[in-house]
Amino acid sequence: MHNKRINFKLSALMVAMTMSHLVNGQENADGDKPGLEVMIVTAQKRAQNLQDVPIAIQSFNNESLQSKGISSVTDLAPSLPNVELDYTSAFSGSTQVLGAFIRGIGQADFAFNLEPGVGVYIDGVFYARAIGSVVDLLDVDNIEVLKGPQGTLFGRNTIGGALNITTRKPSDTFQHMGEITIGEYNRKDLRGVVDIPLSDSLFSQLSFSSKNRDGYHRRIPFPGTFTTDVGRFIGTGEETFNDTQGGENNHTLRGKLLWDNGGDISVLFSVDSSNTDEASAPNTLIGTFPDAPDPNNGLLGFLYNACISAPAGAVAPFCDSNRAVVGTALGGVNLDGTNTNDRLLYNDQFITDDIDTTYGRGANYSKLSSWGTSATLDWSLSNDVDFKSITAYRELDSSFGSDVDGSPLVINDTSFAIRQQQWSQELQLTGLSFDGKMEWVGGFYYFHEQGDSTDNVVFGEGLVQIVGPNDFTNDAYALFGQLNYSFTDKFSSTVGVRYTYEDKVFTGGQRDLNAFASQSGAVAPEDHPDPSDLTLYFPTDENNRTFDNVSAKLGFEYRFTPDILSYVSFSQGFKSGGWTTRATVAITEAPEFEEETADTYEVGLKSQWFDNTLRLNMALFSTDYDDLQITVQRGLSPFIENAGKSKIEGLEADFIWVATDALTLSGAIGLIDARYTELEAGAQVQEDFLFNNTPEESASLSVDYVMSMQSGSSWQWHVDYAYTSEQANDAENTPELIADSQSTFNGSLTFRPSNENWEVALGAKNITDERYIVSGFRQVGAGVIDGTYSRPREWYLTFRYFNQ
Q1: For residues 596 and 476, what is the distance between their CA atoms, to the nearest angstrom?
Q2: Which of these, 297, 302, 488, 749, is most buried using a 10 Å CB contact count?
Q3: What whole-number distance in Å separates Cα of residue 380 and Cα of residue 384?
Q4: Phi and psi at residue 221, in whole multiples of 5°?
Q5: Strand partners, 233
């Protein structure tokens, strides 16, 4: 039940101790009895045992990903308490937008003017855009999910947390691995890695992934015949009209070159490329409301219906005018009631009786091409001081479009194109001082980004036809430092600070090709940015804003025993502001929104029990989340506004228990209470609203059992369960977009022969075929509610060969 206070009693802690997440257990070094593998993480810019880091972290290695059948970053979410990772964004249609939320903080919108709330890092390189962050987990060495603000060491856009992904370095021995997966909907995946030493000090690696499967969501013809302007609306030039949605066609390639002669200096060069060309994320029409001439109640759907229903000679001027590139009038009906244009009314008749079908015939594509290169220099300056430099360049080119209205009409079709380039330089110094009592890290970070985006959105069969060109430039600088000092063998303290400065430049130019605002009389010419051009809605002046912030961290740690670490901490996060760039009514100034901040207080416990066979980690947290940026719909336009202040409190725990050398149990639990405590005037949220993508309860449980044969072969059974309570898929809590609580099951059976250089796995995801909304949108201007549902039950068969 929303807004209930989390009860931090011992009983809640005892419940938390019964759940957690998966990491593989393996034998102790002596090989006599089962035990836990040491998990090495780099959350504090240096390699450390997971259990020694006073941060709430969940870590996954490559073996745990394989056992769960995980190949994409969004597949991780069910195993993570208080974490939501969606692969698409409302009304975009793109399958490559990462909607990441950790502890109630994130960002679901893909717009260039918005910064993500959860930072994604791959081999130390920051991925700046939500688009392109649904990364393939190819040859991963380790994934760390850092919860809570990471404002000191990671900085930019880690107000909610960070995903820190490390891929495997080239090996100094020749080795290779190949994997092929077939499955439901004609799935054909191919992955491989080869390591080739070129000399005693130069090592290379090439890895690739190809994912292909058909869509499960079908476009079906609407009964009857009529004339329409389908396909004639303006777009990005990338429009396709596929018969299905929800398919996959993605290819990734990565190459690495490592120079390491065993001395003080090593250099790693990396280049990667990814290409996606597939249908859009599946959209299902859930509701329509073109009921009244009200900007907040389906105005353009209402006007479209009025235009095609009114008697001849009684239609408004905007009905009779040629509609920009569509080039026809909507007209009306004759006085005797006969229809002159054979058009259909837009209403609930376009809701199908199957969530996996749509009558939509508009835009249906998701394309992305990206590549990047980086050079990482590691230099041991002395026994106690190390220097690291990470230089990186990345760019992406994406286009995507979706038929939001779910009908053969063009009531709300969207198309977008985003291009982006980024360059970054990070310098780090890490070291030990005072006979090893103090561990410290300091550094400098510079980031430059530039790009452009174009929105192409059509409403009401061309009554409004938006073209929105935008150009952006962003320069960010940061200085950071953090140290941990051990006063005694048991007691230590952590202090960190980061200064950030950002300089943003934005130029817009959104216009309505049909000049609906002036045609309808809603806006006078003098209220347009340029009274001589009534199609122009957004001022074309260059906008410039700067933001600066100081984020701090303070913590104290106490080690009760070598296996039990407790900590308390205070940490801050920051995300800069910007401008609302989408406008479907004339404005004279670019609407601004301010930065948001988060202050988190956390109490945690890292522990191992029963001779290193049980790992239990827990955390209680309380976050003051201020000036949160939310997307709300005002008339036709989604605006970004600072809603006010909020309080987020919660509990999470994870454990793994290696019960025997054959049986491993693991799981996770999260409880969270996110509520608004102060709202700005005019905010379109209310105090009792659920936070977007923030279920109050989440849990997972996994069982792995290995049955060894006398021949040396083995069978491994894996079953995992995930639960989330109800959650909202928009800030305004549209009832149709609130997902009910759900439980999902996955499972696999893996056979490995005695020679142990190949294995085969048969698995299934969403075994009980649980269907629920994962993303949705209420377009109040057009009168449309649509949503994307979870994938149906799917089976897969994987054959894997390796010689490591």
Answers
A1: 16
A2: 302
A3: 8
A4: -75, 140
A5: none
Helix and strand numbers (H, E) in the chain are 5, 47
The first and second tokens of residue 424, run together, are: 């970054």
Residues sharing a CB contact under 8 Å with residue 512, sequence separation 6 or more, in sequence order: 464, 465, 466, 535, 537, 584
**Structure tokens, 462:** 């061309």
Closest CA relative to residue 48, chosen from 135, 120, 146: 146
- What is 607-636 written as a DSSP string? EEETTTTEEEEEEEEEEEEES-EEEEEETT
What's the CA gap between 415 and 458, in Å, rounded?
A: 9
According to DSSP, the β-strands at 592-593 and 578-579 are antiparallel
The DSSP code sequence of 565-614 is: EEEEEEEEEEE--EE----SS--SS--EE--EEEEEEEEEEEEEETTTTE
- With left for phi above 0 and alpha for psi between -120 and 50, is residue 595 left, alpha or beta? beta
Q: The pTM is what?
A: 0.91
User: Would you say 84 and 271 are in contact if contact means Cβ atoms under 8 Å apart?
Assistant: no
Question: Please, are residues 745 and 768 in contact by the beta-carbon 8 Å criterion?
Answer: yes
Total length of the chain: 804
Going by C-alpha positions, the residue among 545, 443, 553, 552 that lies closest to residue 501 is: 545
Helix (H, G, I), strand (E, B) or coil at 98: coil
Say if residues 471 and 452 touch (Cβ distance below 8 Å): yes
* Mean pLDDT per 10-residue section of the chain, whose length is 804 residues: 43 39 39 74 87 91 84 87 87 86 90 89 93 85 93 90 94 94 96 96 97 94 58 44 84 97 96 95 92 73 85 73 72 55 84 94 92 97 96 96 91 93 97 94 97 92 90 96 96 97 95 88 87 91 95 97 96 93 82 94 96 95 93 70 92 95 95 92 84 94 94 94 94 92 95 89 96 90 92 96 82
Tokens of 141: 């060495």
Supply 750's token pair: 């893996």
Question: What is the spatial distance between Cα 607 and Cα 609, in angstroms, rounded to a whole number?
Answer: 7
Cβ neighbours around 344 below 10 Å, total? 17
Residue type (1 letter), 139: D
DSSP 304: H
